[in-house]
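Case study.
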Amino acid sequence: MQPGISQGIEGFSGLYVHGGEDDQNLMIYDGMPLYQVSHLGGLFSSFNVDAVRDVDFYKTSFPAKYGGRISSITDISMREPNKQKFTGSLSLGLISGKAYLTGPIKTNQTAFSLALRRTWIDAISAPTLAIMNAIDKKNGKKTIAGYAFTDVNFKLSHIFTDHINASLIAYYSKDKLKFGEKLFSKSNDKETHDSGYNDDKHNIFNWGNQGLCATLKFRQNNFSTKATAFLTEYSSYNIQKRVYSGDNNDPSTLDSKSDRTDNSITDVGMQIDNTLHIGALCAISFGMNYTHHSFLPERTKSYYVTKGVLTDYNNDSGYISGNQMDVWASAEFPIKNLILANLGVRYVNYWSCANHHQELEPRVSLRLGINDNYCLKLGYARMSQFAQQISNNHISLPTDLWQPAPAHIRPLYCHHFSSGLYEQIHKDYSIAAELWYKRFFNLLEYREGISGLNPNMNWQEKITSGKGWAYGLDFNISKITGRLTGSISYALMWNWRKFSLLNEGRKFPAKFDNRHKINVFANYNFNERWSANCSWTYTTGNRFTLSLYNYDTSSGLFPDAPSCGFGDVSGDVITGVGYVSSRNNTRLPAYHRMDIGVTYTKKYKNGKSGVWNFGIYNAYCHMNAISIQKDEYNNKRVDNGKWHRVFKTYSLIPAIPSVSYTYNF
Amino acid sequence: MKHLFTIFLIVLLASCSHETDLYEFRNQHDANMLTLNSILTPDSAICVVATSPYFFTDIHNGYQYVDNLKIDLFINNDFKESLTFDSDNHTYHSNIHPSAGDEISLRTTYKGQPVSASDIIPVAPTIADVQVKRDGPIYVYYDNDYVISYFITIHDNPDEENYYFLKYYQPNSTTETWMGTRDYSHEYVFQQLAKTINAHVPGWTPYSESGLPFSDAGINGKAHTIVVKETIQCSFFTAADQWTTLPRTFQLFAISKPYYNYLVSLLCDDKSNDNIHSGMLDLGLADPLKIYSNIEGGLGILCSYTSSQHTVDVIKACGKFPK
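After joint prediction, the assembly is written out as follows.
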């Protein structure tokens, strides 16, 4: 992980670049823009690495050809299918498996590749759950849990001539998480057939992307052009369901309640990129992009069946169309052999039935060569974004709703300044130090006290906008050659937000205002067969809103006055209510974790190879906190007749060993 | 090796929940906030309770009263007196009864910090009429249940924003008759409340024994008939037909805007709902809501109400319950 980037909350992996949010990262998968690509747990890469050839990642100095997100660009290129012979790999691990196959359809002309990946956490956790539920059965309880994701990557590639080739890509990724519990009469042998009660509560979270992309590339001499057409769909839903039966023999006692919230974005678009190289150091690039977005900001369907009477309720925002037309141009050229300049501009025109916005985004990148080993880089970029994923929880659920810029709020945009000093100390070592400053406008948040899942409110009513600013320093030293390679990086960051309707209009630290971050990574190749790697990360804890102090309310003091029944007095315990002094007033404990991996590679005589990977995630099992709960009721204890209340941290992921075997053929 | 494996297993299966102390976040600013609570009504003399907040994990079995304050009382910006501390009740009080329309202000200083608040006593509301309709016996919980619908007509003052609170109850509890399950969810003004507090409208079952607040949004300046219901469960053994009286009292409060905001924020912060947001609030995963306070430089609430009530007898209005 590079300096200046946080991975968010453990177990809910995300990408938080230079004070930005997880939704501000543009993920382009071989030409397809994707939304919300993270998997749960933080144990799995967002993409199947077998299918990936290379990744271009930008966190500063954004080229003009990229737009649509304000914090980072990740441009992922798929591996070219093998046009000569069939090759592939098959990998089996404790919690997941994957397969990759590529080969020619017509030798040297048409080829395909197919990559599949699936977790089987749901399958391997089933026996554990079964044992747990067998024990809990006498207590009338059954736990429901399961998680799985699947992704599929397909590429078909065809060479027409030496100058023209084309490809067709299909991508599918889907995650499903289910959890809940079922309570039933302890006396029942079969909880659904005998008389007695049943109380079945469960939640389902489902999210994923799918898309198709066709690309035509032309290259002759110094000129190249690439035309892309794509169709992508991101969708998510969460279901909260409860079925209660007071007497299993009496259908009239059945009560059920279900809420389902859907969110989706469908993009259809085309893009043309052109590049003309003039000499070794000069290049001109230009192109255009048109994308039609179809947003479903929120569709909540609720139904209730009580005493045989069905009541249903829909809060449907309907589909909202948005059209985005981008035109861009950039030029890279040297100035007196001292400065390499890359100047560009991107013009963005966005219109929908409710609003029309035009943005002009200048991009500047200057590279000043001080000598052969030192260079100084300066960069400026203005970026804009027309949809945001809004969250009002600390863990940033993957099903948090993506919403387009509302009619009354301008789209999100950002000014990004950066300057860096880069040095090649020795052929083995490089050092980079970078200062950056970022200013955000029109960030969206839910209004104070409004839940994103509030079913009675139009999605636009729930939202308010504000600004933010973040600044910091990234430092990195890398050893890039030799048996021992690795890096040490350090990032220092401040990250602020200011919303007129939040925190009484006062500035407050952002959720990911992680002051210090240290990453250490080392990889050692013992020989051709054995290698080992180790990484350690430390991050100052995320910001968190917590009422540390409680104060007394009027409920217990003025018993005759109107009250909603929420008092501060429960029996002899006077709890009061929490005093929220300001937003994000507390920090979670610092996050740190070590991962260890060992790889053994065996090459067989037939040219094939087998790779064993052994690893431990969170090797010293530091239970990193993801939240802090004020436990008022469940954990109180008596000490000399006094009540104690406690703060409790919740953690998710202990040490997780992993073993996998990959056969490359 | 065996021991190593055992230790590894223990570490691996370490609990996912731990107690933690957050002493590093103790701060004098929060600890020195004065909490003032006072609910004013023309029926009572002015009374103020001053307490201090406590760090959540501190032992707190009783109110931590602050008894050394000089609290000045102003009515319509005229200084009236400094409140007297009653050491028996730990309250600051005055003999003055506020009147509707009065602006009551309190000013004091605590640990060098000025603390003040003010509120205007609302004008008493009027219940113009209460009508009753009984349906049943019908099947709700069992075969012999009754649904009583109450139609309470009020007149809202068009000149200002008004806030109300409605509660209904059986004035004299007896062993023979009882109050059934209250249901506010069919009424427009409470549906607007549900919208504000992130609750579902259909199936929203507040069943609040204490009552619920509402605003005049959507009914401003109009005569409006509020419809609330009560479901009375009558078993086979209930001699409902023998009941000769079934009184119900409707108490309508006019509450001040700070009072309304305060009650709504308490409802929003309710962690007992079984929706995802409440669940996340309970686990500390969602941002807690700041409970509304109008105490400048402190915490708590200074608010006010006036009320009127109307009692009806369901038996008189609808006749005796059938056999």
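Observations recorded in class. The longest strand of chain B covers residues 298-313. DSSP finds six helices and 18 strands in chain B. We will return to this complex in the next lecture.
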